[in-house]
Amino acid sequence: MIADDTYTARRLFVLGEWDAALAVLGPDGDPELRAEIAVDGWFFRIEGHDEAEKAVAALDPASWTAQLLTGRLAYSRLLFQRDPRPDDRAVSEAAYRAATQSGDELQRGWAEYHWGVLLDNIDEDSAGAVARYETALEIATKYGDGFFESYIIRHLAHLKEPAEGIAMLRRSLHLRAALGARPQTVAAQAALANDLPDDDPERAELIRIYRPAADELRIGWLKPTG
Fold first, then answer.
1. pLDDT for 38-57, tens place per residue?
2. Which of 13, 21, 90, 224 is deepest in the core (most CB within 10 A)?
3. What is the pLDDT of residues 193-216, one digit of tens each?
4. C-alpha span between 158 and 178 (Å, rounded)
């Protein structure tokens, strides 16, 4: 029963059904999975921060999951300007730095990626970000992890020449769609639409597709605007 509940929770998580995933998992379910779902739900909907923080606090603080999620919470408070704390920048980098010490190469890659996002979006340090992204991409490619790759190239795209960037955004979208990762697919549709010319028919079609989905999923930073 526990294994079945965990499987169901993971499938709901992939679909962006965060509340349902947590309900299926239950209070006695895998605490790391619970924390991952709660933090992901906060990030996409910009709702439920306190619950996400409590879920992370329940983990072993020395674990890779706790380190990465601690960094993500601090980073997202800064990114969304939702009650940012004076030490959020330092806490985020320290958490990612610690997470890169994992003996698991894929885990190290995710930490490198998130560190790159911090440098990119908060510090506007493109050179530093690219170095982290490229390290992460080497790892994602090595293991054939398309989901991970979709995240990295989504962020690398805006640091490339326009044609290469658009190609990366399309690949990110296709990887996510093939894996059935619904909120990530919607975000990829929006990112591609944003980078296409205003008069491109593909842009208009992407907007028509992603806006209702973003509204349904309550993605806080992709709500329809007219």
1. 999 999 999 999 999 999 99
2. 21
3. 999 999 999 999 999 999 999 999
4. 23
**What value does the mean pLDDT of the chain take?**
95
Counting Cα atoms < 13 Å in the Cβ hemisphere of 83 gives 6
**Lookup result for tokens 């890779």:** 64
Q: What is the 3-state secondary structure (H, E, C) of the chain?
A: CHHHHHHHHHHHHHCCCHHHHHHHHCCCCCHHHHHHHHHHHHHHHCCCHHHHHHHHHCCCCCCHHHHHHHHHHHHHHHHHCCCCCCCHHHHHHHHHHHHCCCCCHHHHHHHHHHHHHHHHHHCCCHHHHHHHHHHHHHHHHHHCCHHHHHHHHHHHHHHCCHHHHHHHHHHHHHHHHHHCCHHHHHHHHHHHHHHCCCCCHHHHHHHHHHHHHHHHHCCCCCCCCC
pTM of structure: 0.94
Weakest mean pLDDT among 17-26, 128-137, 214-223: 214-223
Q: Residue range 147-166: average pLDDT?
A: 97
Buried b (16+ CB within 10 A) or exposed e, 17-31: bbebbbebbeeebbb
Virtual torsion, Cα 59, 63, 68, 69, nearest 10 deg = 0
Is residue 71 within 8 Å of 99, Cβ to Cβ? yes
Rounded CA gap, 147 and 145, in Å?
A: 6
Q: Among candidates 167, 212, 226, which has minimal Cα distance to 191?
A: 167
